[in-house]
Design a protein that fits this description.
By secondary structure, the chain is an alpha+beta fold. Among the domains are: 90 residues, Immunoglobulin-like (Sandwich); 85 residues, Immunoglobulin-like (Sandwich), CATH 2.60.40; 85 residues, Immunoglobulins (Immunoglobulin-like); 98 residues, Immunoglobulin-like, CATH 2.60.40; 64 residues, Immunoglobulins (Immunoglobulin-like, Sandwich); 92 residues, Immunoglobulin-like (Sandwich); 246 residues, Glycosidases (TIM Barrel, Alpha-Beta Barrel), CATH 3.20.20; 85 residues, Sandwich (Immunoglobulin-like). Helices cover 15% and strands 33% of the residues. The strands form 17 sheets. It has an eight-stranded parallel barrel. The protein has a six-stranded antiparallel beta sheet with strand order 66-67-68-73-70-71. Helix 11 packs across helix 14.
Amino acid sequence: MKSMKKMKRPLSIFMTLVFLATLIHISVKVANAAENNFQTITVTGQSVTFSYPANDGEREITSLWVKGSFNGWSNVPLEKDGDVWTVTVDNLSAGTYEYGFVANDIGSGWIGDKFNTFPKAGNGNPQFAIGGLSSIQPFDPQLVIGEEKQLKAVGVKEDLTTGVLTDGVVWSVAENSKDLVEINEKGLVTAKITDIPEGKGYVNAEVTAEVNGSKISKKLYVVKEKTVSPVINSDGTATFNVPYDGDKLYLVGDINGWDNKGIEMKKVADGLFTHTMPITPGRHLYKFLPTSGSWDGEFPDPLNAERDGVNSVLVMPSPCEVQVKYIRKDGDYTDWNLWVWSTGVNDGRVDFTEIKDGAAIAHVTVTPTTRNIGFKVRKGEDWKVVDVNVDRSISIAEGSEVTKAIVTEGELDIYTLPTITGPVLREGKANFYYRDMKLFREGKMDTIKSVKLKIDGKSLDMTYDEKDELFKYEYTLNEGITEYKFEVTTADGNSKEVTDHANTVDGKSIIEYRNPKIDLSATITPDKVDYNDNAVVKVNFDSAEDIKFQEVYVDLTSVGGAAKVNVDPELMALTIAIKDTTTAGDKNIPLIAIDQYGNEHKGNIKLTVKTRQSIGEDDFDWDEARIYFIVTDRFNNGDPSNDDPNGENYNKNHLESYHGGDIKGITEKLDYLDDLGINTIWITPIVDNIDFNLASNWDVADDLKSQYAYHGYWAKNFEAMDEHLGSIEDLRELIDEAHDRGIKIMVDVVLNHAGYGMHPNETINIKNFPTAEEKAKFEGMFRERGTTDTVKGELSGLPDFLTENPEVRAKLIEWQTSWLERAKTEKGNTIDYFRVDTTKHVESTTWKAFKNRLTELNPTFKMIGENYGASIESHGGQLGSGQFDSLLDFSFKDIAKDFIAGNIDSAIDRTLEREKLMDNTATVGNFLSSHDENGFLWTLDKEGNNNGVYDKEEIDKFKLAVSLQMTSKGQPVVYYGEELGASGRQSGNMSAGEFSENRYDMPWERVNDAKYNHILEHYKALLSVRDKYSHVFSKGTSEKLAGGNEDKFVIIGKTYENTKLLVAINQDVEAFDITFGTGLEEGTVLVDEYRGESYTIDKDGNCTFTLPSIEDGGTSILAVQLSEEDEDKDDNDDVDDKDDQDSDNDKDETDKDGSNSKDEEKGNSGKIDPDNFDKLPKTGGMPIFDLLAIGVLLVVAGALLMRKKSKKV
């Protein structure tokens, strides 16, 4: 093997020389004649001789011309020499050229070249090639100061094959450019100058590549920042930008009728010309002229790689817009407006510009590449009134010029009018649709008098659909290919036949229908699961025909899911989840695939659902996670030796610098976290991040120039631990120690982007900047820069991974999932969950593939995603679709803020509606604060101190928000330090000193400080109750029982199976008593689990309890207290029940009516163990018993009678 490695480079050089030897031979005959061995082209060095017979078997040729891309498609006459026409063209550069002959009639005699057997161009034209070095890539001639540009020499042979040459290329810089740029032996060019002379837009430089006598040069423009040309603007104009040294420059093309007087461009800097003008949609050719009225010196756009011969190409898209129709019941639209984002054009306020048929209409301009926009409907500017206060989005189909959406007051769902993409085939029938796009844009489709479908010799009247603004017809097809048209009669009575604008090829609209035989099947792994597991369905099919599927989906109703969950057609695999109310036993999951002809093919998947077995008292389900989020660098420094591994001399007082927190520091504080009551630790990314200081060029004082990747989201190597955090052994120790305490570890991961400086064209002469070797790891994995699309654009200038490329996707997934094995301890423990960053910026195929792979490795592995702005109501399809098990809910903090502001009714109504949408397969993480947003407590600072000092009123309100968080369905997420009253402002303009105050150091000194310790105790009490009644809060149902805005309190009843709780939260400054009827026996004891107070039921079955004031936490959580005898009995029953489950895991353990008679007897006793659900089969439809504890608890009869000190319900 070693000898082979030694031979590798000499062999590569030899092969390059052989390749080049074929490029520049003296004379090569090409286009061996297909008929009579006639040779039409002879290449000799840089010359080509065209030859053609006087009679080619089809015609007698009396005159002949040749034209092609070698001369701008000008006709060159051939001379007749005997029976052959011939001409020679000299001084051609290396490259591939299109051409063709014109016989007898110069205007219409194009005959191409039937004798040329080499591959034709994409447009069908024959080609020839001049061998040699043909180009230096990439095309873009701009070299940005401070960046590297990797140049590659491309060679072409006369057989039209091309190749990038790596060895044997000699790179050099022109004599007049040696002070400007430098280039190494591998073609890596950099600027030597550090600035552009004042008054100039660029500096010219030139480099050359040479191999074996073949030479080619490339002109470079050295610039401070890149210029793009042409720029397509959102207002229907295009801006042309040209670097040029002359005094005048003119634009010419079909945009001015090819008048060579041209359009004079404006000189905006010495050497830069620009011009902006309206351009009609379509394909346009253009070039530039140095002199008005003369074609001399003409040249194409040097910044535009799209060429047609000697002309540059501009494709101007049709203007795209989203029309939002807003319907209010009262018809009053005064001050109402839209707030939009992700348009790619102008985000922000958009006004309703017209009122039509009682609805307001707004026009939102978007780019042709925008696939969805976000919006809210609000009144005025102050955000006090928002109609459905969640981030919502409108999807835009690819190629759609106009998207229309209907938004109705008070309704979450949006109706988007369907986009026409051609006929839709289903089971032998085709649904045809017609729209006139101009009339559709103007809202005038209803002015069309009639549309007929012309097909199979029939003329069929189409029906107008007023809601969808289109004409439609369903037609039964015969197998084969069928042409169709539409006959449209406009309001003036004129009729015309048109093709389908969404399905026209070569001037015809054609539909094909077949009914192929397909054998459809699927596997599922694992095939035996409980409800805490996931499983991967893999779809297989076999057919003798070329099959493509319109859609593939599974029906998950048998396991508690949706009736239609799509399988990604690229992956043909899907991760499914099982709802925890699913009974144990064998399940059938229908599989449906619809082929390209609309035929439905069916299969069936067998899955066995087992009873969920708890492993130890600390085992919990995914929806029971109580999450604590740690920015590792800011939490605790357990190993000072890794504080400055790269010699950067960090200023630990700077908010954007490393502070020394590490993995060992978390391990040291596990007892604190265990005592707090959390069961899941979320830590920021652990992978190796970039090490240089991004703030080196900030225009601030030197002591403020600091910005490092302490947070972990700017990776340079996904396969290594970051040296600031510690070693892999430290991580394994944390995992084992956490698991010993019943705590799971969630690691933050990023698949959307890498760190700054990792793009191959980036370079800065600064300490610890990524090396070429480090950047090589991501070679070919980034998308082109410059786009702002939500998915296919860069986020904050970070190098964006081309995740839609299967190879890139697979590599990223491999890197991230390998951590499960890399982090595995000797005990077999490893990372339990992932929190996934920036999920809205990556397409769904990647997330489904990621989830599939993780499920294959560990069926219990779960992921929570960060889809910025998402909520349980609006999650972009990322829940319940095989992507994520949970999403962070960005709306919860707003609900909590609304609640503590006294808007109890609206906040609780919203909370309870949200809970109905959650289950163990699709839930949300409820957070108040995070590292990306202003701290919750900080936003309550009415004094505007913003310095971490908050008054008692603010803290009291904050504690009520925590009470709502900890008693609401969903996964509570505690942001580190929040439990000690820490909070801060998010970063703003960092170069102006607005740093991340919300990423503070953990204030450990506050743990025993009386000023803050009461907040910690509040958290502990609530987390303890949530732990004790985990199933009630995580899986149960909720009902508002009493209270509201005027009462300043609220009482919520919470139920899960045979356990009920009463949660009361008081916003009043005074405590008061509440009396209510329970239906329980006299002497039964209710306990306030939050305060530790006990209350005894009186002879009338009533209970009176004290609801504390806001100053004392404002919270009560009531439950029935068991006697020690009952607790012991239930403990013994618990053991017996688990033994029974173990002996027969695969059977449905409920009775036919869904009940369990043994446990129902317990329920009728009227005394409930809050953990009684642990003794029942955790998979199974268990009843909610009739007389449970606080069951009849609020038979709230009549009106709520209230007094200041005593309230009776």
